Amino acid sequence: MGFGTVGAGVVRTLAEHAGLLESRLGARVVLRRIADLDLDTDRGVVVDRSLMTTDARALIEDPAVDIVVELIGGTGIARDLVTRALEQGKPVVTANKALLAHHGRDLFDLAARKKVDLYFGASVGGGIPIIRALREGLVANRIQGIRGILNGTCNYILTRMEQEGATFKAALGAAQKAGYAEADPGLDIDGHDTAHKAVILASLAFGFMMPLEAVHVEGIRGLSDADIAYARDLGYRIKLLAVIKGDETGVEVRVHPALVPLGNVLSSVNGVFNAVMVQSDPAGNTLYYGRGAGRDPTASTVAGDIADVARNLVAGSPCRVPALSLVQSAPKPRPMADIETRYYLRMLLLDKPGVFARIASILGGQGISIASVLQKEGGEGRHVPVVIMTHQAREGRLNAALDDIVASDVISGRPVRIRVEE
Ligand code: HSE
Predict the structure, then answer these.
(1) Is the CB of 180 under 6 A from ligand 1?
(2) Which fold has domain 130-291?
């Protein structure tokens, strides 16, 4: 269901790798039907026209259909159709992160009640099998933290801005043209697509459906070239990160641009590539890297899920790997005011005696220690950009300090604040 970019990629993969899949599964995966409202657009793959229908419900009800694949996206019709398929006891493979982030709890419950598989590998990381790593490879681990570059469009934009000095708009246009962006690019650049993926990873890591409302989300729309350049001078790159951390006291899930030191491998993840770093006990750090958007990488993971569900059907063991292994008592979402990290601050300060002392005293009053200061020379008496890197600080205290700085008479405009993730 859904014959768009990814749908066409799945059809191509199933056709071109039919023999390989059959030899690996001991069963043949046959494409029975394709449902889409648009049957006319050329998708670049050859399909038997008689397989195509505009009636997705008929596809679900077709007794010859054993596995339903949802690639429509969004939370409207896709939700109805996935619910319908599960209610009829048909396993579903979906790449729909928005659907799971908003309605995952209901859908996973329904799948468990009906004892059918609901696979969602392609909802995070495109071609990277990170969902499978968390569900299976790391099943014996306690997950302590996950940091990820999860949106190919944003990473592509940031990379082009950094490497070529491209404008935000030109870089976004190029990403859309290459088929990476969501139909609504606001989902990408305002961080919501990353937040949907972060909710799914956090829920797998900590065993409860993290409410989407508990995720702090900032996108890359407001990032300025100045900050990209200052960050580079200081030995960092700016990436849109999903940060997931948790222990028995709480779980924080946040999405925002972050300064990543050049020594951290995540800083070298460029273009449409995604990467996820998982910190867990006993494995330690493990890293997953690959193309996070686009037709073929996403099709690889969808087809991998189809293969896994097919194996379960052949072996008569549906739900062999439960989607979420729910914990008894879910840790609480941690409020943003309680997170602790380092900060990059850029502000336009008056260039006159005593101004630094004032800023240092406001920060110091909140227990925030300055790690470094960068100021380019300007004329005395004028406002000049000043960049301050702090040591580890609590966000609530930093906010209070920034309020005091804004209220002072030494700053022009508002400070820019970007979190640092080592
Ligand atoms: N728009 C998404 C991205 C596609 O750019 O990463 C994959 O979810």
Answers:
(1) yes
(2) Dihydrodipicolinate Reductase; domain 2 (3.30.360)
